[in-house]
Amino acid sequence: MQEAFALEYWSDSSSFVGHLPEIPGGFSQAETLSEPEERIRHAHELVVDDQRSEPRPGADTREILLEA
Questions:
Q1: No. of H helices and E strands in the chain?
Q2: Computed from CA positions of residues 58, 68, 4, 19, in that sequence, does the dihedral angle turn out positive or negative?
Q3: Which residues does residue 30 pair with via DSSP β-bridges, in sequence order?
Q4: 63 domain residue, yes or no
Q5: Cα(23)–Cα(54) distance, integer angstroms
Q6: 20 is in which domain, residue-wise?
Q7: Are the C-beta atoms of residues 35 and 43 closer than 8 Å to each other?
Q8: Is the overall model pTM greater than 0.70, yes or no?
Q9: Total structural domains in the chain?
Q10: Of 18, 22, 24, 34, which one has the greatest count of Cβ atoms within 10 A?
């Protein structure tokens, strides 16, 4: 399932800086705007994958709905 996020970006001298507020420390810098966007996408994937850890031994799980 895809979800939309707002990528904040600005020009910093001769490069672009991108920031995804949903990822603490989620900043990237590059010469073109597409580069920080791609790096932020990769960082987001890493964060999501890290959060999908196996349950603790002996723990039960259930799905709940949260506002995005």
A1: 1, 3
A2: negative
A3: 16
A4: no
A5: 21
A6: 8-51
A7: no
A8: no
A9: 1
A10: 18
Task: Give domain status of residue 60, yes or no.
Answer: no
* Residue 27 backbone zone (phi > 0: left; psi -120 to 50: alpha; other: beta): beta
In a domain, 15, yes or no: yes
Closest CA to 15 of 37, 30, 27, 26: 30
At residue 41, what is the residue type?
R
Asked if the structure places residue 29 within a domain, the reply is yes
The predicted-structure confidence for 3-56, as pLDDT tens digits, reads as follows 788 888 898 888 988 888 877 777 888 898 888 888 888 888 887 776 666 666
Which tokens hold the place of 53? 């850890």
Residue at token pair 């996408």: 41
Q: How far is CA 3 from the centre of its chain?
A: 11
From the list 66, 34, 30, the residue with the least C-alpha distance to 51 is 66
Decide: helix, strand or coil at residue 50. Answer: helix
